Recover the amino acids of this structure.
């Protein structure tokens, strides 16, 4: 099996796992959301505040490490329930956050509301 065939086999396996629900990734919690009784995602207001705070801090020029330290100082657990956030989780949230919470760039202008 060459590299291209192996890549295709991996992608097909991942795709199948999502389709039949056997993939752990298919059941991952999306931070800022809850699954409603109808199976649709709804915004979790408390987590949405955290997401807003993370964006505010990022737009203010704070590093991922400083944001993680701020979350830990506030006692906000990570999406996986751990007491410490890692830079990768924050980076993912920032990369996908507009889709996650339904925010747009205008909504990300820092406001006077902060959790710290």
């Amino acid at each position: 099996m060459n590299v291209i065939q192996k890549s295709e086999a991996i992608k097909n396996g991942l795709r199948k796992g999502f389709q039949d629900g056997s993939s752990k990734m298919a059941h991952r919690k999306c931070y800022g959301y809850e699954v409603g009784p109808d199976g649709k995602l709804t915004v979790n207001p408390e987590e949405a505040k955290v997401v807003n705070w993370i964006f505010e801090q990022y737009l203010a020029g704070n590093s991922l490490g400083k944001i993680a330290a701020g979350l830990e100082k506030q006692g906000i657990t990570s999406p996986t329930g751990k007491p410490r956030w890692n830079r990768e989780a924050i980076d993912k949230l920032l990369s996908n956050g507009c889709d996650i919470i339904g925010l747009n760039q205008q909504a990300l202008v820092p406001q006077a509301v902060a959790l710290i």
Remarks:
- Confidence is low (pLDDT under 50) at residues 98-116.
- The helical segments are 3-20, 45-59, 64-74, 87-101.
